Amino acid sequence: MVMRAVVQRVSQASVSVEGRVVGAIDGPGLLVLVGVTHDDGPEQARRLASKLWGLRILEGERSCSDENAPLLVVSQFTLYGDARKGRRPSWTAAAPGAVAEPLVDAVVSELRALGAKVETGEFGADMKVALVNDGPITLLLEV
Asked: What's the CATH number where 74 sits?
């Protein structure tokens, strides 16, 4: 398995927990939902951050690094949901919180080390994500 991310080009995005905004960006920028599986590690986090920072999906085939565009990174274990059998997804491929949280934090830290402005959600919380998808452009990355 590999670390997964759903990346959306946005003109704005925010994440709220219990009615309070915990992270928000005004675009152009990227909303990134990050899923972690059991065998992911720091190398996958580093590669994902590098890919996100240089991904040329902003206007004019520019990247966040070209535009100093912000990113909103939100942990999303459901990216590893498996609904091939029955009607109830299985979450067994998703890493437990003790494994996933430090790796999502590592993606954020790596992005910041590259010079990115990064906002985040709140790990394990019931989050409400709002966005204005620009384009729309939505990609699935696996690194």
From this structure: 3.50.80.10
The residue from 76, 92, 120, 138 that is catalytic is: 76
Q: Is 78 among the catalytic positions?
A: yes
77 is catalytic: yes
Would the pTM count as exceeding 0.70?
A: yes
Widest CA span of the chain, in angstroms? 45
Percent of the chain with pLDDT over 70: 99
Which domain range does residue 81 map to?
4-142
List 8, 78, 92, 138, catalytic entry: 78
> Taking the C-alpha atoms of 121, 82, 44 and 8 in order, what is their torsion angle to the nearest 10 degrees?
-50
Cα 68-72-73 angle, rounded to 5 deg: 120
From 77, 92, 123, 138, the catalytic residue: 77
- Measured CA to CA, the distance from residue 133 to residue 38 in angstroms comes to 30
Number of domains in the chain: 1
